[in-house]
Amino acid sequence: MTSSLPSELDRRFRDSATEAALLDAAYDVAESPVGPLLVAATERGLCRISFDPDPELELDRLAALAGPRVLRSPSALSRARRQLDEYFGRRRTAFELDVDTKALPAFQQLVLEELARVPYGETATYGGLAARIGRPRAARAVGGALNRNPIPIVLPCHRVVGSTGRLVGYAGGLDRKRTLLALEGAA
To answer: What is the dotted CATH code of the domain comprising 7-88?
Structure first.
């Protein structure tokens, strides 16, 4: 069913719902050098960036994560989209965005917190991250946690490489990983 609302009225409705905090999650689709990205946030912060977004699947995931009131609201994601544009334009090396990882298991939250400390243009290894969180034998578990990273790019799992420096394991695909590392000058 297509909407018969004029686009200005539709935009005002979405903006009003966002401003009145009536949404459990807001999302939008951003174009990028690595393809379209579905970007989503709750009131706590950015909760999802998806490569090759399938809107139906992603909306179901967002509703399960945050609640049923999910709406495309570009205004709610304007800051995140601007910072992603700056990153892809090589004008930003660090994100200044709140992230919402509340629904994730404690171990994965710990891994993602440490991952966020890997600087722009540098790489870390899975074993190195495991050691940094005090679990030196948990390199595979760290890899699993990163494979399920719901906020890639902002939480830069593309900066994590194998123990030999080889590019391994990236949920967005190794071509995207190469592109992101090259963008940062780390390839």
So the answer is: 3.30.160.70
Per-residue pLDDT tens for 147-178?
999 999 999 999 999 988 888 888 889 999 99
Q: Indicate the pLDDT class of residue 1, thresholds 50, 70 and 90.
A: very low
Catalytic machinery residues: 157
Q: Quick one: which H or E segment has residue 30?
A: strand 25-30
- CB crowding 24-54: b at 16 or more within 10 Å, else e: bbbbbbbebebeebbbbbbeeebbbbbbebe
3-state secondary structure 126-153: HHHHHHHCCCCCCHHHHHHHHHCCCCCC
Helices (H), 38-173: 55-66, 78-88, 106-115, 126-132, 139-147
Average pLDDT over residues 81-99: 97
DSSP assigned state of 93: S
Which residues of the chain are in CATH 3.30.160.70 domains? 7-88
